[in-house]
């Protein structure tokens, strides 16, 4: 997968390289610091031993001078406790006594380089890593101090020496141990990072695969739930939520297309059938007017369906600024009722209005909310019994304006109530009455109110059906706009 190769692998390699660089930098730093620390410690130890030998030699030397046997035995004891090699020189730089236990020391009689004695005479001390120009077979860390005579002159020199090979072997063992530990820790870190990256890459790979399946039209796939409450867990939850939404939208899209196809097919079939009958003479001349009226009716029905779908499209692309318009809800209801005067008279219905005397100013898209009032009144009159009462009530409560439209007719079954706001849904009571509708009126009502963050409720009991919706009250002092209530399709 591309995700695995580009994200997981690259992230793993970058992290591994960072670990390696950090460990190398840390190791080099520790190596240098540790080496410098050990050298300083050994240097201090050698100077301390040199001071001790110098003071002791100046205190115990007798008639035998620096080459006394007693002094030599003490030098051997000190060297054994410190692990250093010690020897004493006379003023000319010739070795006269050593810490060797052998009676005949190979170093007695040797002479240290003049450059060393000159530096001792000049600086009062000497230190360095050297073989003293062949004095030793290997490199030694050498510290030297002068021995003073009773008259203050230089009587000789004390040399304290530590084998460099031994020092570096100790340090080499320490470095090897550090390298082994560092490699082990680096290996564990790399293994942990590899496992962690695989764990993080798994949901990303699943989401990439799911996205490819979405592109092929399969919206049923979901990403495995991620147990941790971190960014990846939040991402997987959001992805699954998005997948649920896409699947619902796809289902609605297919349902919408199926419903539109059905709604279009029925009138178009009627129009085509009757037109062909008129053209080929199947329909007798005396019935032509009747079937032409049917064609006209079905054509108007197609027009209403197209206008309703265009209205839905405009609702989805509506300007949010229009939702801040102020208008008088009571005036809008009265003007809209005038559109239904002939239909109300035709069904011998009466109208009962319960509205406050003062203007009820609300805010929102005046044209869209007028459509809400129109669709609810149209729905109520369509399904009300002849001679019944149509009731419209307006009131304020808890900072909102409430509008209730009530009709008397057939009771909507309880199982139908949650569905009546769906697209193209028609309740059982409409199947024999709603030949002119397209099933989008109440869906548009809910969409308009949802766009205004408002609610609509419906109840239907004992033949009384009531639709109640809310609107936001406008701030005092706002100038209301006029609504165009003439929406007769």
Summary tags:
single chain, 489 residues, alpha+beta, Beta-Lactamase, Heat Shock Protein 90, 3 domains, 5-stranded antiparallel beta sheet, 10 helices
Give an overview of the whole structure.
This protein is α+β, with helices and mostly antiparallel strands and 489 residues long. It folds into three domains: 2-169, 2-Layer Sandwich (Beta-Lactamase), CATH 3.30.450; 241-315, Signal transduction histidine kinase, dimerisation/phosphotransfer (DHp) domain (Helix Hairpins, Orthogonal Bundle), CATH 1.10.287.130; 320-473, Histidine kinase-like ATPase, C-terminal domain (Heat Shock Protein 90, 2-Layer Sandwich), CATH 3.30.565.10. It is 53% helix and 16% strand. The strands form two sheets. Strands 6, 7, 8, 9, 10, 11 and 12 form a seven-stranded mixed beta sheet that branches. Strands 2-1-5-4-3 form a five-stranded antiparallel beta sheet, sandwiched between helices.
